[in-house]
Amino acid sequence: MNNKIDYKTYTDFLGDECFIKWQFLKDEKLNEYWNSFIKENPELQDEFDKACSFISKIGIRKNILPEADKNQLLKTIKYDVKRFKQKKRKRIYLSVTAVACLILVFLIIPWQNKFFLPMEEKRTVTVETSVLSPEDIYIITPSGSVPLKNNADIHMQRDNTALVNDADGENKILELDGNHLNKIIVPYGKRSKMTLSDGTKIWLNSGSTLEFPSKFTGTTREINLTGEIYIDVVHGDAPFIVHAEKFDVKVYGTKFNITAYSNSENFVVLESGSVSVKSKSKEELHIEPREMVTFKNDGRTIKTKNVNISEFTSWKDGYLELNRTSMLDVLKRIERYYNLSFSYSDKDYNSLKNKTCTGRIILTENSANVLTTFALLSAAKFEEDNQRILIDVEP
Question: What is the CATH topology of the domain spanning 137-312?
């Protein structure tokens, strides 16, 4: 057993191979060890429970494996821990949470022998990558613009001002124009959250622009969107309307996700309540909870179907949930989230489009860790070579 780790926070437990094995295997010796450990260290109970809860939330599959597969799994975990320790000695610093994420990915996905296929049965997809120039989040008003830090939390007040809480705990008051729309621009690689004057909460994903009034007046509450938001609309007599380029969404009080990027498929996913979605071609649909409506490039509706909500809303909670999701689609999400730029050949484009991923990717601060997890979830091997990403995928 590993008793050399100086446990202080739950991430120390997540970085411990012994703890990970115990969470997966739950055998008597490991149970005895960890029960004894927590009795001897009661001050760590909260952090210990938090680590257990984290693993439970990630969704580890605890189905019983054949002994051979179990041994192979433990070998993989051990190798993964050793590899990252070696990298750390080379001064490639990785967060403990990111390492834990990469260990846990083996437990999240269904156990399949395809992880150990010989390399000659796969082909290498080369993805050229570059980090784009960082930009600030901006609130733009008729009187000027104000830069904000990442993850700023903005609360609209009733006196035409906004209270901004940034990631460092600093607060500032912004003066807004009560007679004109204001705008928040969230560039790729950044995210933000805001509460409108009526109490409606909005999470803005990377690459999003939102126009909004400092306070709502009249018979409707209206905002304009380009990009992606998750929104929790406060119920009110005045209907709430979200205008996007290809459609409008009308609600009274509900929770839903809107994806309306100009260069990708647009859709609305409803979590609760009821909404009316009207395309620019005047087609109108009423959708129910757990339904998604998708739009063609010309703005016409393409289809409505039932979906797993968390696959479309998990980004606001710091992870991506994938269920046979196209590798190409996952790369696009990672591009936006980390402000990266990927390019690949037409042949590689088709390979990525036809290959799928299942599992969860924790969106840590280190994009390289996320890409490694992505490769593992897609039953592929991943390697960085300067500005290139090499992903071995099945033909």
Answer: Jelly Rolls (2.60.120)
3-state secondary structure the chain: CCCCCCCCCHHHHHCCHHHHHHHHHCCHHHHHHHHHHHHHCHHHHHHHHHHHHHHHHHCCCCCCCCHHHHHHHHHHHHHHHHHHHHHHHCCCCCCHHHHHHHHHHHHHCCCCHHHHCCHHHCEEEEEEEEECCCCCEEEEECCEEEEECCCCEEEECCCCEEEEECCCCCEEEEECCCCCCEEEEECCCCCEEEECCCCCEEEECCCEEEEECCCCCCCCEEEEEEEEEEEECCCCCCCEEEECCCEEEEECCCEEEEEECCCCCEEEEEEECCEEEEECCCCEEEECCCEEEEECCCCCEEEEEECCCHHHHHHHHCEEEEEEEEHHHHHHHHHHHHCEEEECCHHHHHHHHHCEEEEEEECCCCHHHHHHHHHHHCCCEEEEECCEEEEEECC
Question: pLDDT for 178-231, tens place per residue?
Answer: 778 899 999 888 889 999 999 999 999 999 999 999 989 889 999 999 999 999
Domain ranges across the chain: 10-111, 115-132+317-393, 137-312
pTM: 0.67
pLDDT tens for 298-323 read 666 667 889 999 999 999 988 888 88
Domain 115-132+317-393 class?
A: alpha beta
Whole-number pLDDT of residue 382: 61
